[in-house]
Amino acid sequence: xxxxxxxxxxxxxxxxxxxxLCNLVAADPQGRVVAWACLGPLRGDGVRTTAGELxxxxxxxxxxxxxxxxxxxxxxxxxxxGLDQMLLWVLTDNSGxxxxxxxxxxxxxxxxxxxxxxxVSVPEVRYQRAL
Length: 131
What we know:
Layout: H1 3-16, E1 22-27, E2 33-41, E3 51-59, H2 68-78, E4 85-91, H3 95-103, E5 107-117, E6 120-130
């Protein structure tokens, strides 16, 4: 998994995405983006329309634990007008991210999927939270 490959995959996803994507950023005092989140409709067929998906939430590694991620996640929830639930996918082995979302009230719902990155299978688990 590389930054370049992930960037290309996300650009393609967002280009093909339907209406409703909302990108939020956090900037430092110098105006540099230090965190980014993307909220949008659920991916996949046959899914509920009253639920949204947190497609991404990234924080500059040096700011992990500073509260910027929590603040950005709260802003995502505030922008989720008309939605009653938020879902997101987390790498199964990413214990730090899993703890972060669990502290924010997310729980696993039993759904799992595996993405392929350069021939390597990467398992993910889905989390959900009522809004």
